[in-house]
Amino acid sequence: MRRWAAFRRWIGIDRRKHPGQEVNQGSSESQLSDSSDADQATEAERSRDVKIYIPYESAELCITQIAEDMEAMKRRHLEMVRELEENFQLTARENQEWTMQKIRNHYQSKLNTLRRILDLYQEKVEKKNAAWERRVAALTAQNEQLLEEQRAERRRSKEEALQWHREKSKMLELFSNRLDILHSHQASTLQELQMARQEVGKVQEMLMVSSQEQQETAEEGESSENKGQQQTVDCSELDLPLEGAKARLEELKESLYQREREITELLEAEKIPVLPVPLPPCSVLLPTVIHKAHAVCSAVAEARALLDRLIEENQAALVEARDKLDHLQMAKEDSNDREDKTTDQERSDEYESSLSLLQETVREYEVSQMALDCIKTGESPVTNDCDAEGVKSVGEQLLLLQDQLKQIKEEKKKVIENYTSERTLRKKYYNMVEDMKGKIRVFCRIRPLSRNEAAQGGAVIVDKIDDYSVTVETPRGPREFQFDKVFGAEASQEELFDDTNRLIQSAIDGYNVCIFAYGQTGSGKTFTMVGDKEQKNPGIMPRSFSAIFDIMRENSTKFDFKVSAYMLELYNDRLQDLFVSLPGEAHTQPQSHGQARRVEIKRNRKGVVFAQGAETKEASSAQELYALFQQACANRHISATKMNVESSRSHLIVGIMVESRNLTNGSVSTGKLSLVDLAGSERAAKTGAKDHQLKEANSINKSLSALGDVISALSAELPHVPYRNSKLTQVMQDSLGGNAKTLMIVNISPSECNLDETLTSLIYATRVKAITNNAQRNVESKEIAQLKELIMKLRSGQTVEEEDV
Ligand SMILES: Nc1ncnc2c1ncn2[C@@H]1O[C@H](COP(=O)(O)OP(=O)(O)OP(=O)(O)O)[C@@H](O)[C@H]1O
Fold first, then answer.
1. The domain 438-795: what is its CATH number?
2. CA of 524 to the centre of ligand 1 (A)
3. Integer CA distances (angstroms), 298 to 305, 374, 375, 377, in order
4. Residue 221 and residue 226: Cα distance in Å, rounded?
5. Alpha helices in 380-492 (DSSP H)
6. d(CA 21, CA 255)
7. Across-strand partners of 466?
8. What distance in angstroms lies between residue 448's CA and the mean position of ligand 1's atoms?
9. What's the rounded mean pLDDT across residues 528-550?
10. Whose CA is nearest to atom 9 of ligand 1?
11. What is the ipTM of this complex?
């Protein structure tokens, strides 16, 4: 209304005064005033006084004019709006550039500081490395020396043991000979004793007969004197057998003495130590001999009597010898006091030799005494004399050697422990430095021998030396490979995941992370990434799902998280969205999502790969994410081959995006965790692939060979990397030589039957280790995040409020 009044004023019409002359009146806003209501009132008063009359044609003209003016005004207005918009966009862009510049400068300075720190750190680590290397070399040398000493000690002990063995055999032989002699002597003595007894009996009979005859003769003695002469003759005749008997008795006595001497000699020989043999077996043999001699003495009364007599005689001889020795010693002392220096030496020598002889004799009697006592009592002697000293000293030596050996072993153990801990520490720091540099981490996992391989009789040729090294027995000798970690056949899924967990945190922190399994068919990639069929041993994928949500829960007071995922399969060089099941495919899928869209791999400005055309689903819990995963797995291409009853015939790619908004400063970071279970490389002849399986195998091998080319180019630092040769390499572009933190798990079989494939996989993995990535956090400040939101709104045609800007 205000505008209409102004128009009327402008053309000078007062319709209220001329109601019959009503015309189509236009309005113009060129003269729109911003005057107040009071001004308008005075203006209205004035216009009421001015009376202008215009003809209809003029009014029409005027209105046309006004219409044109309005049209021009409208154009002008639109131009102004456009100008304003352009200005706004320019300012926004300038603002953005300025902010970006500031951020860039800020991060550049941070990067420089970090680089300086890294250089310093590297320098320190290198110094430490050098020190450690020196220490390890010294320890190795010491270890070598100790080993050498140990070997020498072992040789010596072996030789001594051999020597002891020889001596023992000799002694055994000696003792058994002596025992044989003793037995035969005892047998003959017994025989002779029996004969002697018979003879004595005969002699006694003869004596009895002769005494009877003597008695009869004495009774008849007094009968006649004439017969006297005759009697004397008879008596002398009667004495003859008595004389014979006496002679025979003497003979027997002599023979008995002879036997006695022989036995004494034998015993003497027994008691003389043949050799001062320092042998422990003596202590075993001696009691046996004594026991046997004691048994003989107990069984044969004569031998017992003989032994008693021998003991008495020996004691007497011993006392006599000791007396003589005492006298000689006293005499020597006396002569020492009396003799002059010249004759002293001769005398002293004489005394010395006599003394040593006597000492020897005393000693012999003592030993005899001991032996005889032992035979009598049947108890073994206490080995504390000089014969036993040898044994004792050898025993002591043996103990000493054992002690030394124990000590050496302990030292060796310590050295090895030190060496291992130093090596582990060194590797840890090395890993940290490599991690900082952005090197791709490579783990090696050896799976257990499968039933098939065991049935084929293939030997185990792969061995984990330590946590970082693995050797493969090849026909040309063992080949060693080094990795960031080696997991043996006994390693559990938990152990493997413990070393992987760090990367899940990185994905939540806004990094682009990729974990992928590589290896020949049946080497355990799916087991490592997904787990077994029953999920009794879940692999990295299901464990990651839980870990993501666990970490999110822990940080829920500081961040606001959003998790979404896409799951793809690269089958026969065609990317397929696993959330969509294709009609006509062999597998069935509980939830069908209709016709599949074309999925293409694209990269955003930061080089992060994303799947255009693939459905991305949000998940609010680990269970939900796992359910999505199961849904995807049901759509995967799996079939049985000769090498694996459940062989993956495609590459599985699971992408999990984690967006986190910092509740304190509003910054937003977006991390991506890519989990890839590659299909295994295979030889058609080995797997028995035919028809469509052969086509699958060809496609798998083609894509893996393209992956190999990319790895070779990256490790050789070639200027051109052939990422575009295969869809697989496009998918993995940001993980190999890109901006991701990457972990490769190379799975191998331990069996000899797969030697070639194992070597190829390990060589590939070694090459991958050389590749350096440039991982960067995908984080935006609050302002950038807001500006992006604004642009999105404007693009989608939404209105933008002033306070939004
Ligand atoms: N570390 C392990 N411990 C126990 N069993 C294992 C291990 N690794 C693999 N296996 C078993 O070996 C068989 C083959 O493993 P898997 O299917 O994971 O091989 P793959 O490399 O994925 O093969 P493909 O490339 O043909 O799919 C499976 O039965 C699996 O359970």
1. 3.40.850.10
2. 3
3. 10, 13, 10, 10
4. 11
5. 386-437, 451-456
6. 191
7. 469
8. 9
9. 93
10. 524
11. 0.97
Q: CB burial class (10 A; 0-12, 13-18, 19+) of residue 332?
A: middle
Q: Is 539 exposed, middle or buried (0-12, 13-18, 19+ CB in 10 A)?
A: buried
283 known ligand binder: no
526 is in an annotated binding site: yes
| Backbone phi, psi, residue 77, to 5° | -60, -45
* Distance of alpha carbon 482 from alpha carbon 469, whole angstroms: 5
**Strands, E assignment, 535-621:** 559-571, 574-577, 600-603, 609-612, 617-619
Give the pLDDT confidence of 691-723 residue by residue, as tens digits: 666 777 788 888 888 988 888 888 888 888 899
- The number of the ligand 1 atom at minimal distance from the alpha carbon of 447 is 1
Token pair 């036995």: residue: 263
- Max Cα–Cα distance, the chain, nearest Å: 236
Whose CA is closest to atom 10 on ligand 1?
524
Answer for the pair 66, 13: CB distance below 8 angstroms, yes or no.
no
- For the stretch 717-737, pLDDT in tens is 888 889 999 999 998 888 887
Residue 749 CA to ligand 1 centre (angstroms): 9
366 close to 318: Cβ distance less than 8 angstroms? yes
Q: pTM here?
A: 0.50
User: Quick one: three-class SS letters along 209-245?
Assistant: HHHHHHHHHHHHCCCCCCHHHHHHHHHHHHHHHHHHH
Q: Hey, what are 581's tokens?
A: 């099941």
C-alpha span between 609 and 739 (Å, rounded): 10
602 residue type, one letter: K
Q: Which atom of ligand 1 is nearest to the CA of 517?
A: 21
> What pLDDT was estimated at residue 196?
67
Angle at the Cα of 288 (from 282 to 294), degrees rounded to 5? 130
SS3 290: helix
Give the per-residue SS3 of 496-522: HHHCCHHHHHHHHCCCEEEEEEEEECC
